[in-house]
């Protein structure tokens, strides 16, 4: 059962085709759109501003979303938010990516098809142009992304679209085994899940 909390009479909304891990916490003004994936231990605190994940977005393990009153924190269509990232009062445009443990602050905009590198700190108000590679503390635009890098990002997001479906269909709470099975199988991703050639 997903941990969903109403506050001040406002209840989170989760589209039926979205997967939210039971250990994630959604509070108040949170809107999770179709085909989204919310990972374990993610915290979406819509107790001040509104939090929106548009169709196909993913917010991975231990991510935090929060914002100020009257502001929206938005991850647009196919936005990809890596493990442990923090989004506060910002917007990640369509097909944008925020890497692991990166922080994106208030009024910042991650441009369409842009990537914020892992561990980067995007200052409040920074506007990142489309197709940009951004990195550092504070983050700076270092170059334009190549087509193959954008294709790699889209491939990664597709893996999370598929994980959404696999999680909804097959994930269940069980007891662990005491020993490794002699014929232990591996997860079969199918032929479409291998990394594209770089």
From TrEMBL:
It comes from the Bacteria. CDD domains: LbH_paaY_like. InterPro entries: PaaY, Transf_Hexapept/Carb_Anhydrase, Trimer_LpxA-like_sf. Transmembrane segments: none annotated. Residues 174-198 are annotated as: Disordered. This is Phenylacetic acid degradation protein PaaY. It comes from Massilia eurypsychrophila. The lineage of its organism: Bacteria, Pseudomonadati, Pseudomonadota, Betaproteobacteria, Burkholderiales. The gene is paaY.
């Amino acid at each position: 059962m997903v941990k969903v909390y109403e506050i001040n009479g406002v209840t989170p909304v989760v589209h039926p085709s979205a997967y939210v891990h039971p250990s994630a916490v959604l509070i108040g003004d949170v809107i999770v759109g179709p085909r989204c994936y919310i990972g374990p231990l993610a915290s979406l605190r819509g107790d001040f501003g509104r939090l929106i994940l548009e169709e196909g977005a993913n917010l991975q393990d231990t991510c935090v979303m929060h914002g100020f009153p009257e502001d929206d924190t938005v991850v647009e269509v196919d936005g990809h938010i890596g493990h442990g990232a923090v989004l506060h009062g910002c917007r990640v445009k369509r097909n944008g990516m925020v890497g692991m443990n990166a922080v994106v602050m208030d009024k910042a905009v991650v441009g369409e098809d842009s990537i914020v590198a892992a561990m980067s700190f995007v200052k409040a108000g920074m506007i990142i142009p489309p197709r940009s590679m951004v990195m550092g503390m504070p983050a700076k635009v270092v170059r334009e992304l190549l087509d193959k890098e954008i294709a790699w990002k889209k491939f990664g997001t597709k893996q999370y679209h598929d994980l959404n479906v696999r999680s909804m269909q097959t994930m269940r709470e069980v007891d662990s085994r005491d020993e490794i099975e002699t014929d232990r199988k591996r997860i079969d991703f199918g032929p479409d899940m291998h990394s594209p050639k770089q």
